[in-house]
Amino acid sequence: MSLSTSLPPSTGAVTTEDVPPEPSGRSRGRPRRWLFALVVAALLAEMAVAMLATAVAQTPTIDEPVYVGTAVVYLEQHSLRYNPEHPPLGKLIIATGLAFADVHLDPAFAGDQTRLGRHVLYESGHDPGRLLLLARLPVIVLTLLFGLVVFLFARDLAGPIGGVTALALYAFSPDLIAHGSLATLDVPVAGFVLTSAWLLWRARRRPARYLPFAGLALGAAVATKMSALAAVPVLLLLVVLSVWHRRREDRPERVLRRLGLGVAAAAAVALAAIAVVWAAYLAVDPRLRWAAPPGLPVLDGPRTLVDLLPLPQPYLDGMRVQFGFEDQVWSTFLLGRYHVGAVWYYLPAALLVKLPLGALALGSAGVVALLAVRRLRPAAPYVLLPAAVLLAAAMTSTRDLGVRYAIFVPVFLAVAAAGLVLVRPRWAHAAVAALVVFAAVSSLRTFPYYLPYSNEAFGGPARTHLRLHDSNVDWGQDLGRLADRLDRRYPHERIWLVYKGSGVPSAYGIDAGDPRTVPPAQVHGLLVVSDSAIAKADDRLTALISGSSPIDEVGHSITIYRRP
């Protein structure tokens, strides 16, 4: 396949100001802008419907109650004492929805953050479903706005058709729909990094206009989740690259001046990002009252450099909490095998399972196009480097708990795929369209069970639990669906439940015992087990399951057995 474009070499690299003509030729003319606007609106509307339907149907996932409870504390007590391992901005975004709920925390409450989440959702006198939906709505809106960024970034690279191609892959991504509908931090941090990269690309032509906003977006990413710190060096290098490109017409003897301007611009962007982080903490507590949590690990080696960062002390102590997590030994489940300790290739392997085949093919080909097509090559650092660095950093983690730690990959791959519309052969355009449709159909078929999605090569969502666990398939989201299923199909039966999640079964009318607390001979009736618990079952649970017969499943995440 030829990777040359349909445009003459003299046209130069793609810029943010000059949108390239459509590959099909100038004679057909540009489609009207209103048509593209209609397609963009339709794609975002589809994604909104999918996320809203998912948000309404799902009960709390494991992390959400902690974020919801912390957001309530931010609103009511202006305290930073809960969930220090994550900066405040993402939880402040969640709090914008909870502000309409009029939730009040019991002044006498003194539990930890896990207990806090349950107290707010289940003991505050409010409907937990309504509270959770209000917490999820701001993240849904933000996910849709990031969809616009994907479209605009891709349009800058490959014109409006490229923008629509990228947005379609984004809007139909099962992982982005699943996690974009939750009150969590993974999609927001990925979206802020993407926004910063896009603004830096635009800064190649107008640095004064776009660099300040790129710094704000970078700061928002760092103020949402500490994993974004890995992207800071590469994004600051892209600042230098953008300024260098803008002043490329300078005489050769001014190389040092161009480099100095780039470094100065990078410093300004870094200062803007630091200011956003400080602003996030001060928005919670203007007095920045803080007491370090007990048991923080002692830092040594390169980790001691943390103390040099010009960030608030709660942020630095939160990094220590994260280091403590990383020092623990975690177990995982990958491709049907249980592992104790980290598996270095976990995320690439899990992404192969979780990404739609059409999106995987288009994203991979898009990466090749960015590197091979001359007109796209200048954009390669802006699209590929942030995602590559973040993925490499995530692969060093000891916590192999789901592709949500690499949720930025489908985001940046969608932008990369836009470059394929500049490939010359007409059959390539038809192939791109067919693969987009394939990805969309695969996504639509999994509705409304987006969290346990896996592609057709691995058996689809019904078989994801045989390959992966935790937030890839079963994150506690189907407790409400389980309650409905038990009420409709199995009324008055004895229920034994092994549930992995943060929900409270009794709040949904589930009266169940724990089969692990009684002799196996006493366990009769329905044995209900979360699929993540099955993946990591100990000998006792394995024996209980082996003596039972599977009769039903709920949401592709919970299996119901009958035990004689």
Task: Explain what the structure shows.
The protein has 564 residues and is mainly α. Helices cover 53% and strands 5% of the residues. The chain contains 19 helices and 6 strands. The chain has a 4-stranded mixed β-sheet. The protein has a two-stranded antiparallel ribbon with strand order 1-2. Helix 14 runs antiparallel to helix 15 (408-417). The longest helix is centred in the first third of the chain and has 44 residues, at 128-171. Residues 1-13 and 15-29 have low confidence and may be disordered.
Count of individual beta strands: 6
Distance between the termini: 61 Å
The amount of helix comes to: 40-55%
Strand order in space, largest sheet = 3-4-6-5
The secondary-structure class comes to mainly alpha
Per DSSP, what share of the residues sits in E-state strands of 2 or more residues?
A: 5-15%
Mean pLDDT comes to 92
How would you describe the shape?
A: globular
Largest sheet: 4 strands, mixed
Counting DSSP H or I runs of 4 or more residues, the number of helices is 19
Element pattern in H and E: HHHHHHHHHHHEEHHHHHHEEHHEE
Give the low-confidence spans.
Answer: 1-13, 15-29
What integer value in Å does the Rg equal? 25 Å
Short summary:
This protein is mainly α and 564 residues long. It has 19 helices and six strands. A four-stranded mixed β-sheet has the order 3-4-6-5.
What is the element layout, followed by pairings?
Layout: H1 33-57, H2 64-77, H3 89-98, H4 113-122, H5 128-171, H6 174-180, H7 186-202, H8 207-222, H9 232-246, H10 255-284, H11 313-326, E1 331-334, E2 337-340, H12 346-354, H13 357-372, H14 380-395, H15 408-417, H16 426-446, H17 479-489, E3 495-498, E4 525-530, H18 531-535, H19 539-546, E5 549-554, E6 558-563
